[in-house]
Amino acid sequence: MTAPVAVAGIRRWVRRTQSAHRDGRETLGNVYFAALFVLIVGGMVHKQIAAVVWPGTPNASLLAGGSLVLIITGGLYLTLRRLGPLALSRPAASWLLTAPVSRRRLLLPSLWVALLGAAVAGAVGGLAVLGHVAARPVPGADALLPLVGALLGGALLLVALGAQADRWWSAWSDNAAYLLIAVGLAGLVVDSAVGAPRADQGWPAEPVVTTLAGALAVVVIVLLLLAVRRLAATPNERIMEAAKTSGTLFDSAYGMEPSFVTEMVERRYWARRKLRSRRLWRRVPVLVAQDLLLLRRRPRRLLWVAAATTLPAALLADAPGWLLGLAVLIGGLMAGGVTAGTIRTDAGNPMLLRLLGLSSRTAISQRLWVPGVLCGLWYAATLGLLQGLGDLPAGPWWALGLALGPVGAAATMRKSRVGFVDNGLTPVDTPMGSLSTGPLINAVAGLDVLLLGLPTIVQLAQGGPLSWTGVVVQAAVAVIGARAYLSATTEPDRVELSGKR
Amino acid sequence: MDQSAIKVRDLSVSYGSTPVLVAVHLTVPVGAGVCVTGENGIGKSTLLRCVASLQRADAGEIRVFGRPPGSTPEFWRAVVTTVEPPTWYPGLTAREHAELVCRAHGLDPAAAGLDETLERFGIAGHADAIPPSLSSGQKQRLTLALSLLRPSRLLILDEPEQRLDPEGRAMVAGLLRDYLAAGGTVLMASHDDAFAAAAGTGMVSMADLHAVAAP
Asked: What is the pTM of this model?
């Protein structure tokens, strides 16, 4: 039997060997570019970040602040769960996880990094809640909310660590996190509807903050001791999965290719599901039947899409009309995207389309239906809700929403068919440095088609009552635009969705 | 009237400066089966990819049923190929993939013998699985099952015996023999002479295709 070896020694050897193969100037260059990137981006957006986290005057009610706490807590927990939270790099997962080294020592550095990340995220969340809710000036001990946030972040990480080792606990805690987000969203909508009162001077009360911080510190210490003790028992397959996640995220960021992450999420989702074959509905075209089947299998996603109809009312009720219009139009892509996996499959590899023997025009015209209906219903519900809460003037806004269905469907198609980022495109020189056009084109694909919703944006920007003529104009632009998209990007005598071949 | 399903004349393909196919000639009559053999890297898959219109040749002429191979729906309704592996649809089981293929070709799944086909290919027990969760051999069986379930006039198969166990090979060979007997045409590449013989295809060496002169 091989005797256990010290993991720190192996890691040192790996680092030394790697740096021996690396050109010193190259490493320096990478550090220089990374630092420059952070400085440039920081210089460009530091004011916006400050405005988001700490606006000049508090602009949210107590209810909104409480709702934000729930959303940040649920969101942070789900993010940590998706990341692992305990992960190793892919090479370490392949070589060191199976080596005769102490598992606890191998995994401890990852635990510290994850703990630090969660604490920083929690602190920023706490700071943002404090900044948006607390009346100025914020007195000393009351300003400990970021510390409470950091401790809460640490506690969430340690709970997520427990969930990583236990499937039952992971499913249960994920559902609880989803519930927190849903309650938080509902709170934001109620706040938008009733205009809940602002926080008094002296919020958050010092005793509450200090008690919370103390209690959380005890919880974190207890959970941390338990976590370190049980660290070695974290199942291998969970660490391998987390290593693949972090690797994919790195690939995605390095190659500026978000589709890697989309594909991974989709693959994992279906791998966990247990399906029973069903008959395709015969009364509709075959690809519509397939999309309907997919829709039926994603009830939770549909629920989230339905819940998201409240977001514009919750977050943008007081925003300028054009911004609200743009946000609503972009939000519809969420609804259209529920069944977009089928299009991404055909756009990436047309082998199944060839086996089906359908032309690109037939395929896309059938694939437009389900996203079209979903987008139409989403827009109708969103605009109807905004009107119901008194944020929009009189008029048949629900009908305008339905008229936007084809716009959302065409934009979803365009976004799903864009394929991999083309990094071979000529970069554009700007005063801030050269800008890669490939990722930019991919990022705006789909959004360009949303310009077909311009009549709606204009209507919202003007702020006047909506007439049926406005609805008809939008419906005509949407239908003509979607048909033009279909004619321009498909052929009746070509199977492949891409015309390059 | 030309009775050729496939006619290849002077086909040349290079990868960079390395020529893979040089003036290749091949004729496959309608209803015939041809199995191209040869060592790795001699260009079998490249030839199949060119015939299936999945790769552009540097020079030469290819005709499939008298026309250049293309990406039209008519071409893909007549031709089935497994030269490239499919990317499976998300959230669709193996059986539903098969039903989708039947329905797209206007076939009633029961009348087309969907369940019998899955049974014959040994994947009936995995009908509710999503294809990515199947083993590589089962995926190969599913791909072949889908290919044979739908109507076609020409099968272009790249090493269809690959990843199959001996029973699976015998079953697929039998089905290819039936396909040929029903008037279909088969062009395939294989390293297994016994499989090709059992499928009823004639064997031709890739090396000989380079040497055969045009009539």
From this structure: 0.83
